[in-house]
Amino acid sequence: MTNKFEEKTIATTQIFNGKIINLQLDEVTLPNGETSKREIIRHPGGVGIIAVTDENKILFVEQYRKPLDKSLVEIPAGKLEPDEKPEVTAKRELEEETGYTTDKLELVTSFYTSPGFADELLYIYYTDKLVPIKEKMALDEDEFVELVELTLEEAEALMIENKIHDAKTVYAITYLQHLLKK
Amino acid sequence: MTNKFEEKTIATTQIFNGKIINLQLDEVTLPNGETSKREIIRHPGGVGIIAVTDENKILFVEQYRKPLDKSLVEIPAGKLEPDEKPEVTAKRELEEETGYTTDKLELVTSFYTSPGFADELLYIYYTDKLVPIKEKMALDEDEFVELVELTLEEAEALMIENKIHDAKTVYAITYLQHLLKK
């Protein structure tokens, strides 16, 4: 399959350049020759880590999400630094957010979170080879998270309560259900 | 669990109001008393439909995604209209994009696509009770999609090629793998 229904860019207007996202407005030619506008968020992309301890607990972090004005329980995750390989990001975020490290990260999948308006690509890793690190590493200065270790059953209950409620973490639960053939 | 690490809004600046997304910049008080800025995308939310035919084919649509400058194969999906119930959106988008309808939509899950910067919430439905409709309905005027019916094995192959590569569709494949206990 090719790039069916391709839309050629006529003009790009930069609207906003932020710490995390940029917003641009593209004027495009549609497949039928008409023109339209596309609102596009540029994001550096990120990682999420499905991490299972020796005691069969899954590592999560609780954190406040300002766009929702509430806190969620999510798998450890973070943004790519410029030119950083996703596996390096994954190891760093695991260490910073959970106090565990690993030498074995397996890439499970990757996906665009919302391809209609954003180019954010998330890489999802899996590890069940976790080693506690002695000194917990520093988080970003505006980052506040709390480690939560849960069984799969406890995580399923939080999903029903909508406390686990984001794409990468709901994906992680379903992946683990499938992995364990529950 | 409560709203741990809550961030109080000091001021909100509206940056952009678009057709699909709005962008605002919130100045917030962090849990440690410092202030920071949060870049927030407001989105109406949407639906995705996991639809399986009598012949055990899964319905997908191929469409061009300008933020990625390529086309993806995704489950049928669409945005909520103002005050529209997600189940109504799901039925409408199924009809518009695939030419099938249904009287039985089961809510599988819902998730925020990218809670770090956006409030977009997606509702995922499942149906295997599909009825072809006689006249295909009109798409939005700037929407061009092509129906693709695939077996689960064919869809898994497209996922490996990164032609299926967005959160809701990767979720759908894993959900179906789990449902069928593959």
From TrEMBL, chains A, B:
GO biological process: nucleoside phosphate metabolic process; ribose phosphate metabolic process
InterPro entries per the UniProt record, alphabetical: NUDIX_hydrolase-like_dom_sf, NUDIX_hydrolase_CS, NUDIX_hydrolase_dom
Domain of life the protein comes from: Bacteria
A GO CC term attached to the entry: cytosol
Keyword Hydrolase part of the UniProt annotation: yes
Keywords from the UniProt entry: Hydrolase
GO molecular function: hydrolase activity
Pfam family, one: NUDIX
Every Nudix hydrolase domain range: 41-172
Cofactor(s) listed in the protein's UniProt record: Mg(2+)
Keyword Transport: no
CDD domains (alphabetical): NUDIX_ADPRase_Nudt5_UGPPase_Nudt14 (cd03424)
This protein's name: ADP-ribose diphosphatase
Provenance organism: Paraliobacillus quinghaiensis
Lineage of producing organism: Bacteria, Bacillati, Bacillota, Bacilli, Bacillales
Gene behind this protein: nudF
